[in-house]
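Dear colleagues,

As part of the handover before I leave the project, I'm documenting each prediction I ran so the next person doesn't have to rerun anything. This entry is a single chain, and its sequence is reproduced below.
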Amino acid sequence: MTWFRRPAAAGTRVSLLYEGSAKAAGAAALLSPRRVLTCAHVVNDALGKDLYAAERPASAGPLTVAFRGSGATGHRTATVSVWVPPQRRPSALEWEGDLAVLDLDEPAPSWLRPVVWRDMEEGQELRAWHGGGEAITFADIVVRLKEGRYGYLDGRLSGAAIGPGYSGGPLWTRDASSVAGLVVAHLMPDETQPLRAQQAVRRSWAVPWQAVREELARAGAADVLDECAVTGPADRGPWFAGPDVARAAAGLAPVLRALLDDPGRRADHARTLAAGLGRPVPPPEERAAPTVEELAEFLATEERALATLTESLAPAVRGPADREALDSLLALGRLEENVRLLSVGEHRSLLEDLRRVTAADATLVPRAAREALRYMVLPEPLAASGRLTEADLDAVVLSLEGYPDGPAPDGGAPPVPALLRLAAFVASAAPDRQTGGSLHGWCDRVAQRLGISPVALAERRADAAGWAAHRSSPVSRIVLRLTPEGSAAEHLGGAGRYRCRVGLVRQDGTASTVAAPEGACAPEEIGRLVREAAEGGQGDDPYPVTRVDVVVGRDGLQLPVDGWDTGNALGDLFPDLGGLRLALGAKYQVALRCPEMSRRSPRRDAEMRRRWAAGHPGVLVVDETSATLQQLYQRLETSHKDVAGVVLHGPREERDRLLDLCLALGVPVVLWDREADGHADAARLDALAPAGPLHQLPERVREFREGVFGSSVASAARPALVWEDDGLPVPDSLELLDPS
């Protein structure tokens, strides 16, 4: 009897789809949660290229990977990270190379397991599925010859046969425990070749695991090979994955022996473990227990096995010695990268509760995370937006399971993990009592299994209750920090990319960052982030966020930020209507801030405060009479020393120099037409009443932008506004991280 066998697969689970289609170009094998392996010619086919094209596809190629199985489906986009092109051999039916590793944009669905590889051998009975993934498409084959880098396969004359659409798919052993290679092609003989149709009716060929390993090593993909699970010798279980597992298992075995030295007790817990993981459970009359070493290897490989085992062990702890051994087992598991914190049942229960919470309030989990884990770098789905979707929850929970524990409380008890702290905060603010009670019960069960002190958990709950009872001050504005990447011409043309940080500033002056993507973003991505932050930050406040301060350097003062798209806010209802969109400057009062000028001009901040305090008497309009740098300097330092607002006209190059002068001299409000060519275009700003009441100017500009961006008028002004208000300071961007 073999313990913990993987359940039989119901067909190929991974497909590479044709561009813009739901049809599969071929199949693929899941190497790890973020990587799949297929044939290079399948990638070429999916992209509409020649099957044997050697050129590596562009990194931004539109590759769609589909996952199917157990009644569930999922899709991810992917890019090529390792490319071994197909290479035809002269006068040969086979070709060389033909491998491609694809990196997924987010982890594969949790219900799909990475394959476990084994060497291909002659006589092996294998099974393949069509890339579409339907169970009925299975084709049974036998390895008739293994020669060099090729494995030659024959199929019976009854049943399905390997053909188009099977390429790139894994060749499963009949018990579905491991994969011996990839399908490459069905032999298509013709009259000019040595094998004719009547001689090879159902012959195909494959690339064995041995050749895959060699090709990836030759391509410099050592990191990919490190992630591949591989079966060991015949006396190992089908989960065995090499020396790293052997090292981890060697550390777990002595502790397991202290807990489960009795074979009968070990067999009982092993059956409970197998049932919890969905593995075949041996019948009760079968008394043979797995060896301690066999169990240790399995715990070191199957990510939720150790937590699921301790879930059944914890209630059976018989004294301090058992509890100490159980704590040691859990501590060893926390040191292993592929061992998860939660059991299968705990993971499922938590996701169910968090899905209910997110469906009722998409902002609650991100808000709770910012408070419960305030000194930690949050997972991207939590940090990138003030709202969370149900689709993000799997990745969030998976990330937080791997977060380091905080400091241990007095008495040597285990610390409260990050995920448990978050769950406690979400439970305290859950939208309904039933979900809150379920999360509190979940925290109790997990804490008891992990040996966490009830006092430590009670402290976290008290913190959470205090946070939930405190109503946050309403959000008054959004602060968007931008750093351009690339050339200035790209940015001024609206095609550049930017590093950004989106923050909320509340009426009580407190500030928090809600979106800080790691890489550079396109304008439409940033516009969407700002809108989501504004909508997510309103809470119960009846007054929506209307103001967006855009913090830029000197080189960013001409950016067309006000024209950036905020996205389709009703995408779920009207996904096909691109017209349901608003420009940033039409939806919000968008104004520029430039702290860099304060560093360049030490007197600037004091001058801004003085000009605001003077009551901003009038607005200076710069026309031909004050168009030079010297003329404007003289007026701002004498007759207009107290004005708080300046309207700039004139040629672009000269206008940029005048803008720098205004900012350096502490003028807090500057308005100009970004697209004006000279003084002849001054009248384009008249509709804004630029010399009107200064405090109403931001809203007048917003209303003007709303009319411009809502029409097809190409000749209208594109007003840019700097508004530096010392009463609305730009929050400090310093962020402290957990020293651990």
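The first strand starts at residue 14 and ends at 17. Confidence is low (pLDDT under 50) at residues 194-200, 233-243, 538-542, 734-740.

All the best with the project,
I.
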